[in-house]
Amino acid sequence: MAEARPIPDRHLPHVDDPATAPFWAGCRAGELRIPRCDTCGRLVWYPAAACPDCGGERHTWTRVSGRGRIFTWVRVHRAFLPGFGDRVPFVTVLVELDEDPRVRLASFLHGIPGGGPRIGMAVEVMFERVTDQVTLPAFRCRP
Fold it and tell me: What are residue 124's DSSP bridge partners?
């Protein structure tokens, strides 16, 4: 059996990418931040040069509640990427945010109740510090 790789050997995001650096800085600060169009107010996720609603090109990174609902989920029983072997089985989710259900974030799910996850289940963000530079958002079930 192969030795489990340490957590930093996962496929980690490039936190210095100009398009997403404010998102990762927010995660390190314990905040979920999404760009909001300065013209029409729509949250723009994944960060883009132009708002999909109005075409506005100025966006302000905005703290959001981190609350949402499970849009879909899957339980993973086999680690296909290095660094995840010690986590199986785990649940990944696509969460639609309360502020705008068009904003969907993929992440891990923690605190799963005995009946398992359900579509529409209420969740909230939490943060997992991986390295000094990388803190990942994850979600936990809320009552």
Answer: 67, 140
